[in-house]
Amino acid sequence: MNNNERFSLGVILLSCVIGMGIMFLPENKAVLYASIPSSMITSAFTYLGIKNDRNSNGSN
To answer: Residue 27, Cα to own-chain centre: how many angstroms?
Structure first.
């Protein structure tokens, strides 16, 4: 696991933690519903970017 993958994994975990924290604030329901899909999309694209980088380097 190189530095880019480690950084991306950290970003994904951080966004999940932030999303979980927002869930426990009931007055921020709109922020909750806006943040969860965007963080999921971001993490999905980040994961796909990692897979594409690894495939292009030829090292799986």
So the answer is: 24
| SS3 at position 59 | coil
Residue type, 33: Y
pLDDT 10s digits, 9-57: 888 777 777 777 766 666 666 666 677 777 777 777 777 777 776 666 6
- Token readout for 28 is 């921020």
User: In this structure, is the dihedral angle defined by the CA atoms of residues 34, 6, 44 and 17, taken in order, positive or negative?
Assistant: negative
Q: How many CB atoms lie within 10 A of CB 48?
A: 10
**Domains of the chain: which residue ranges?**
3-58
Q: What span, in angstroms and rounded, lies between the C-alpha atoms of 5 and 34?
A: 26
